[in-house]
Amino acid sequence: MKAKAERKKRAAAPPKTVAPRRDWRPYLAAGAALLAAIWAYAPVMNGAFLFDDTALPFALPAPSASFLDWIRGVRPVLMASYWMNTRLSGDDPFSYHVVSLTIHLAAAGLVFLIVRRLLEWSQAPAARRTLLAAFAGGLFLLHPMQTEAVAYLAGRSEALSVMLVLAAYAAFLYRRRAAITWGSMLLVLALFGLAVLSKEHTIVLPALLLLTDFWWNPGFSFRGARANWRLYAPLVLGAAGAVALFWKVILYSPSAGFSLRGVSWYQYLFTQGRALFVYPAEFLLPVRLTADWDFPVSQNVFDHGAIFGLIALVALAAAAWHYRRRFPLACFGFFAYLVLMSPTSSILPIADPLAERRLYLGMLGLLLIVVDLAGRIRTDSRKLAAAFVALLLVAAAITHARAAVWADPVALWQDTAAKSPHKRRVLFQLASAYADAGRCQDAVEEYQKVAQEWPPNYDLLVDWGLAYDCVNQPELALEKLRQAATMETTAHVYSQIAMVYGKRSRWAEALDALAFAERLDPNFATTYMYKGDIHLSLNRPAEAVADYQRALALQPSLEVVRQKLADAQARVGR
Q: How many CB atoms are closer than 10 A to CB 46?
């Protein structure tokens, strides 16, 4: 009886509440992704400035330049990020790489959020949404095709602008109501504006938003777009303003635009009909990554099989439309890929028809195709997760190796020359990398190869002459420099002639060359630096002081001249 009473008492008692256990798996996954990204990009964290980096202000920072001086131009947000790095570490590349990797991490997180929302809208199985979105974010983070945009400091224009445009897209997707509110509209517009002021190709966002509204809100209808008029009206005005802002660039830029020499808009379109298949091929099998693709232009619709690429694109578009209800996310991803690639892969000619960093934005569309198809695999979620982890580890290993290539200018251009052996710019950059690394004989031989294939120009001859000077062949050095002077009569080339003479103590010839350089351009600071060096060598420190002071007045950022000036002033005092 007593036991029976106890059982009744326990049955009548309220059930004990058990606190739910915290799920640590998302935090562990995020931590693992962070460590994988740090490891993958570790080789490049102290990588040198290279290629276009050397033309940007941070490669030769001018202490006198104000913040406003930095942000004057078409990409002020990007330049502001570089300015911040100069304040953190001057010309030490470490902080630049840390910021670029941080931007990439943020972009990968946004890809996770975007893919998860679109999986929800596509009614993918709820149990797999987080797994598939995490795989998409991880693949975006660790894919070797992203290395150029992350490891190459000039490529930050890609990473920063895309991170901001992904933030704008995520804000659009996670709005609280189907018809966007004024607050959400302002947030999307602000992020979009920052993206366009980082790089112009992000102007494509309105097209992506319109596609998204048509596809998902409520589904294959413009009803949702009409309800979001308060967003699209200012976007149209903003896009028109951006086109007006960049109109001169579109028309007259020597590297991109409708005035690009040798390539018409339709020839570029034919070429991109082929290029748009190269990006997905390298996305699936990244075996031929290179810093500078040798991708020929299709001069007509049949050249290099352009017509087959265009036909295939039309056929794929028709198939994607036909199967839009059966594979909604994959088909949306295909059209999103075309939309996101359109600024660089349609009719606006660009000097380089193909560059890996351009997939940094377009990869979102390919990831949507992948996760839709992967989500349909009939297997246990744990097995699928293990397969995803294995793929991400392979991607991280390839990215690590690729980052090591980007860390060393010589390794980068050797790798590029092996893959694009008939491209002049590649061989020239390899020769320059040899020269900068002190491998002057290798540089001389590489310049010789370039000159055998193409008529040497001014830049090649100057650098070739300096390489000969480095291997102590002054007569050959002077021959190349004088040949360069017949092409372009500049103070620069005559200052280099003077430098070669000065190293051999041929003071009279050196001073004559500097006098001619001064007549050509009295505001070229290097002329006065070399004059100061010669006067100091001739034990004329007072004249050297005057030369160095004039050089610094013309170019205050010449720290080496400042040091020489202090030495000359000390000698005057003695």
A: 11
What is the pLDDT at residue 163? Answer: 98
What is the predicted pLDDT for the residue at 64? 54
* Spatial distance between the Cα atoms of 275 and 288, rounded to a whole number of angstroms: 14
User: What is d(CA 489, CA 547) in angstroms, rounded to the nearest whole number?
Assistant: 23
Question: Among the residues of 90-228, which ranges form H helices?
Answer: 94-121, 126-142, 147-151, 156-173, 182-196, 205-216, 223-227
22-36, 269-283, 375-389, 419-433: segment of lowest average pLDDT: 22-36
How far apart are the C-alpha atoms of 1 and 7, rounded to whole Å?
Answer: 10
Instruction: Name the maximum alpha-carbon separation found in the chain.
Output: 123
Q: What phi, psi does 350 have (nearest 5°)?
A: -130, 145
CB 273 within 8 A of CB 302: no
Residue 415: C-alpha distances to residues 402, 412, 467, 559 (Å) = 10, 5, 22, 34
Reference 66, options 46, 51, 86, 52; nearest CA is 86
Q: What is the pTM of this model?
A: 0.89
Q: Each residue of 401-444: pLDDT tens digit?
A: 999 999 999 999 999 999 999 999 999 999 999 999 999 999 99
Which among 460, 265, 245, 449 is positioned nearest to 353, based on CA atoms?
265
Length of the chain: 574
Pick from 197, 191, 207: nearest CA to 107: 191
Helices (H), 18-93: 25-41, 67-71, 76-89
In degrees and rounded to multiples of 5, residue 522 shows phi and psi of: -70, -5
**DSSP code per residue over 299-353:** SSTTGGGHHHHHHHHHHHHHHHHHTTTTSHHHHHHHHHHHHHHTTTSSSS-BSSS
Q: What is the pLDDT of residues 473-525, one digit of tens each?
A: 999 999 999 999 999 999 999 999 999 999 999 999 999 999 999 999 999 99
Radius of gyration of the chain (CA): 29
